[in-house]
Design brief:
Blueprint (H helix, E strand, L loop, with lengths): L3 E6 L1 H4 L7 H8 L5 E6 L5 H4 L3 H4 L10 E5 L19 H18 L4 E5 L6 H12 L11 H18 L2 E3 L1 H5 L5 H5 L8 H18 L21 H8 L2
Helix pairs in contact: 2-10, 5-7
């Protein structure tokens, strides 16, 4: 029946089905053409994501997804020695883990449209403000993430996509093209506002459309109501479904 598009990532993907989220917007855009399957795991990094591959993308599937977005890096880039160090993955390992994910997806389906998405930028002061809102003045003083370090992860993601010949969206660079991106696109210095979600949605739709997955060019799963003859409805379903 309908093809599936899997969104695989961390909390930025997990939260994407909230009101104003980029995943919810994709589900709306492809509502009659494809099923948007959410597989977002808050707090996860690429090291932990590897354990999920055979569950989410089984190699013996008779109908693998037609496309997948891979959106990790925000947690990998947490700084070693700081409050979120258990999530930290060295940048070289991050790149190698992404490579393993891509190879698994290609093995699952050589025709799958794979889109790597870089982590978004980090507003360090926004992260500190968020920590103070939770813990008051006893909150940590040193940032657990920095925009500079996250940028190195974004660069490796883009570089790997070029090396493997898959599509990529450089959210880290794209958002910083807008003045005031820190508060416009990020709700707590890391996660996305509705405007930040809109940036991701627009970029995903652009890449999908430039490839071969334009929603308006995909067939409906069942006939449009205008194709159904009220006096003989069976005919439309015989032509399209039987």
């Amino acid at each position: 029946m309908r093809p599936a598009i899997v969104l695989f990532g961390d909390s930025i993907t997990q939260q994407s089905f909230r009101p104003g989220g980029w995943g919810a917007a994709l589900a709306d855009a492809y509502s009659r053409q494809a099923d948007i399957v959410l597989r977002g795991y808050g707090g996860y990094n690429t090291r932990w994501a590897l354990f999920l591959l055979h569950h989410i993308f089984p190699l013996d599937s008779s109908k693998p997804p037609v496309a997948a977005t891979i959106f990790f890096g925000a947690n990998d880039a947490a700084l070693s020695g700081r409050t979120s160090e258990h999530q930290h993955v060295p940048v070289d390992e991050y790149k190698e883990n992404l490579k393993k994910i891509v190879h698994h997806l290609k093995k699952s389906s050589p025709t799958m449209l794979i889109v790597l998405i870089t982590p978004p930028p980090v507003d360090e002061e926004g992260r500190n403000e968020y920590a103070r809102s939770l813990h008051g003045e006893s909150a940590r003083e040193l940032p657990e993430r920095t925009n500079e370090v996250t940028g190195t992860y974004a660069q490796q993601c883009v570089q790997l996509a070029n090396e493997l010949g898959v599509h990529t969206i450089d959210v880290w660079s794209k958002m910083q093209e807008t003045e005031g991106w820190q508060k416009k696109f990020l709700s707590d210095g890391l996660h996305l506002t509705p405007e930040g979600n809109a940036v991701v949605y627009q970029e995903v739709v652009r890449v999908f459309s430039e490839a071969w997955l334009h929603a308006e060019e995909m067939p409906y799963d069942f006939p449009h109501h205008s194709e159904i003859d009220g006096s003989n409805p069976k005919k439309a379903f015989e032509q399209r479904c039987l």
